[in-house]
Backbone:
């Protein structure tokens, strides 16, 4: 029996807005479950972003390799043509030196271009970072309620 000044379990379970109140432990457990679920989803999202970035890098590397092989043929035949043309103007050693120097400059430009392309896009999962920050704020807000 309840004394006149005490509240019964049913009164404590009385609700705001028509639903029974949950205990603090239940609320904390629910928040922990939600947080665990969100973190699991974040790990999945990060994994997916990293796999997509790796596939993009692999495609870029394959395209560079194909371009390199074709470019090698172009350079060989173009170089032979340039040497033959310069032989009419310069001594044989001079024409070969000019063509070799030109190839060296082209190689430097190609290396710098390839390095710049491999740096983009980064492997940092930006979407995951953004959503983790949002979920951290949500969890803090839930715990402060």
Residues:
């Amino acid at each position: 029996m309840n004394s006149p000044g005490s509240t019964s379990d049913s009164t404590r379970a009385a609700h705001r807005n028509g639903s029974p109140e949950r205990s603090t432990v239940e609320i904390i457990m629910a928040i922990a479950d939600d947080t665990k679920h969100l973190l699991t989803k974040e790990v999945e999202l990060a994994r997916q972003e990293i796999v997509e970035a790796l596939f993009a890098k692999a495609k870029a590397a394959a395209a560079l390799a194909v371009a390199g092989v074709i470019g090698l043929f172009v350079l060989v035949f173009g170089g032979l043509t340039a040497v033959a043309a310069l032989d009419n103007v310069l001594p044989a050693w001079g024409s070969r030196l000019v063509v070799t120097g030109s190839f060296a400059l082209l190689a430097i430009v190609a290396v710098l271009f390839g390095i710049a392309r491999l740096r983009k896009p980064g492997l940092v999962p930006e979407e995951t970072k953004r959503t983790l920050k949002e979920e951290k704020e949500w969890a803090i807000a839930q715990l402060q309620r």
